[in-house]
Amino acid sequence: xxxxxISTVSGADPSADTIRDAIASGRTxxxxxxxxxxxxxxxxxxxxxxxxxxxxHEWENEFVDRVWTYSLENVWSGIQSAYAxxxxxxxxxYGVQPQGFGAIGVSAxxxxxxxxxxxxxxxxxxxxxxxxxxxxxAAELTDAFGLNIxxxxxxxxxxxxxxxxxxxxGQVRHITTLAGYVHSKLTDRTVLGIGDASGMFPIDSQTKxxxxxxxxxxxxxxxxxxxxxxxxxxxxVVLVAGQPAGSLTSAGAALLDxxxxxxxxxxxxxxxxxxxxxxxxxxxVAPRTGNVSAGTSIFAMVVLERPLLQVHHELDLVTTxxxxxxxxxxxxxxxxxxxxxxxxxxxxxxxxxxxxATDAVYETLFSEALEGAADxxxxxxxxxxxxxxxxxxxxxxxxxxxxxxxxxxxxNFMRAQLYGVFGTLSLxxxxxxxxxxxxxxxxxxxxxxxxxxxxxRFLAGALDAQVTVTETASEGGAWGMAILASxxxxxxxxxxxxxxxxxxxxxDAAFQTxxxxxxxxxxxxxxxxxxxxGLDVERSAVDALSHH
Length: 548
Hints:
- This protein is of the alpha/beta class.
- It folds into three domains: 16-273, ATPase, nucleotide binding domain (Nucleotidyltransferase, domain 5), CATH 3.30.420.40; 282-333 and 428-514, Nucleotidyltransferase, domain 5 (2-Layer Sandwich); 336-421, no CATH class.
- Helices cover 37% and strands 17% of the residues.
- The strands form seven sheets. The chain has a seven-stranded mixed β-sheet, with helices on both faces. Strands 1, 2, 3, 6, 13 and 14 form a six-stranded mixed β-sheet that branches. A two-stranded antiparallel sheet has the order 4-5.
- The radius of gyration is 23 Å and the shape is globular.
- The chain starts with 15 loop residues before the first helix and ends with a helix.
């Protein structure tokens, strides 16, 4: 889905002189997030609730040799483009160019596999979270650890390479995530925020570090296959939100801004994953709060009061940026297939001589979905462009399925597509419900929540829970990272992250809460029953249709 930028402060605002002075003197915080389809930059001032400027760069992953990847060249050209776009936004609004920042933070897609040798050279192309080729490794680790280790986790990728006897294993000296990699190049420090680290290897929420017992168990597990491998020596140092994580070096400043205007010295906060920035951007880092983030993937995060009673393959155990335990329902497939259909309808409008802006296409289609039957009229939509572990699928085949007596209307079709985004997520949330996990608030963010009252309403029906969005719901990751960067200056005062968010960042925020409609709840439950039964059709499509 085409995402919009957060509304920025007008250059004509009475506080423009104050903002201009803050930018010129470097009293600002910069957040950069590398998402699946966009790299975003966001600038905030002393009041982190107000976005001063934004920048972005669109990019796409590549499927090379059956591996989902991004080249490191594209990582840096994309970051530079997003940063330059932000600088231009600052110039346009305030007539100044930033030469430095008070604090900077980097976040990115979690998990995946980035491994380097002793010369800091990449050993194999970046394997992203989207790859589902680590089944044997994930199963063996889950059994050995007594914890669910998802296919996309970094340790699963590493262990699969060990099982496959890949020749590079003996050369690995460092393993990190995309955010950790970018941070290291900008600061020359090999660290990781605890939330991002929790998607690499299990975290002990008491020690705020990797689980030492499981590290030893892993080394024993691979002692014969990979002699001398000591995982603790390969992983980044773990930090929690508020801890300084280095500063911008001269080389890092040149990487971020090749024009040479940017000066070194800005303090960095720990690099984080997109799950952590989503929690921050929705003020859901306290126990009994949760959020749903919908983009290329879709996932729900619920901060736990107590450990889960059982191991569930549908649930990951990760942490907040402060290290508190979180149950995560992660689905590889989110709104990309919905975006593809919106693109098709947009092209039809253009071909018919009535072109519509992208936002207008979405608003029209989403509004039409409200007219659909509560159960989508018997239609089913599977958004599986990639494999989906929760559904037991190693690959994906997007499908629309209906029976001859289904009510095939545009309204039902669009409702089915929106329901399809939440289908696999709801299967995972059922498991969370069976654990008796308490949830007071569920926040939602992502581009699909821009059209007010549609996706939010359907999600409330899917979860049978009230769902809240804020005015920044359409884009939160880079802003969430900018908030974490600004928190580094606040943390020494002793104010916790939740208090900082509640009392300062979100104190005056506008919230819109939707209570589930009983008709939507019943209709989605019927849809989900058919959806679960129809997964056999999806599996057959994967078996019958080869992926090229």
